[in-house]
Amino acid sequence: MAPRSIPCRSPRRARIWPALEAQLERHRPSCIYLIPCFQNPSGACYSAEARSAIAALLDHYNVTLIEDEPYRSVALDVDHAMLPICAQLKRANWIYLGSFSKILWPGWRMGYLAASPALMPHLVRLKQAADLHTQRPGQHAVASWLQSTGRSADLERLKSGYRIRRDAMQAALQRHFGELADWEMPRGGLFFWLRLRALRATRAELDLALAHDIAFMPGEAFYPQQSDGQQCMRLNYSRATPAEMEVGLARLAGCLKQRAGPA
Ligand SMILES: Cc1ncc(COP(=O)(O)O)c(C=O)c1O
Question: What CATH architecture is 11-147?
Fold first, then answer.
């Protein structure tokens, strides 16, 4: 079966902002944290329409936006420009966060931020209080890469590798998890987000999976209430090879079936 590509404007995701407006009206927060591109863990990506509607709401309620976008550079299939929400704000303050971890060296945890002028002096003082400054070898390496002429080619090479792995995981999931779970193929980022069809907590399956050398992230870790997300699991596709995915997902499906017992 061909991988399913999920358009940004899928009916299920078409209208997130009325719910957001209700929450803003109710709680009147001073700031909001959003991951508009390829959310961790769901892989969801906001449509162009959602981005402008959210920007208008944040301006209306004067809510500071923290826009966290570590996965923007690993977009695989996108059908719009993914204009940052902060670029559309007229009144509200904003902080925009980016990372080099997903495209260069994860262990160095190098990132950056941009912010509206009113916030910047405060952020500089907070950074100085936290660690004076980010380590210099990492800054030097990132700055050299940013100035290099091979930067675009590097990103394309990285993304074509991720695309091969994403498609391989989608195919392996269809082979081994078709009866067990539902998911949407991510159009970028690093993760698949699965919801098991049987009502059971994925956390309880982790020990058995680890005993078979398979690791996944149980869904409850991503929710403030642990009772939510229990049926979900996050799978990473950026590291394992397609051959390893085939073996690993067959094994993980075997563990889940073994625990479920005979139908
Ligand atoms: C949404 C989100 N923000 C930030 C980070 C952290 O990025 P970094 O590796 O640059 O610390 C992650 C990491 O995995 C993430 O998923």
Answer: 3-Layer(aba) Sandwich (3.40)
Minimal CA–CA distance to 84: which of 9, 156, 22, 34?
34
Tell me the Ramachandran region of residue 44: left when phi exceeds 0, alpha when psi lies from -120 to 50, beta otherwise.
beta
Per-domain boundaries in the chain: 11-147, 152-260
Q: Give me the pLDDT at residue 261, please.
A: 60
Domain spanning 152-260: CATH 3.40.1390.20: no
Please give the number of the atom of ligand 1 that sits closest to the Cα of 111: 10
Ligand 1 proximity of 40 Cβ (cutoff 6 Å): yes
Residue linked to tokens 């919801």: 195
- Find out whether the beta carbon of 68 lies less than 6 Å from any atom of ligand 1: yes
Average pLDDT over residues 170-180: 97
3-state helix, strand, coil in the chain (%, to 5): 45, 15, 40
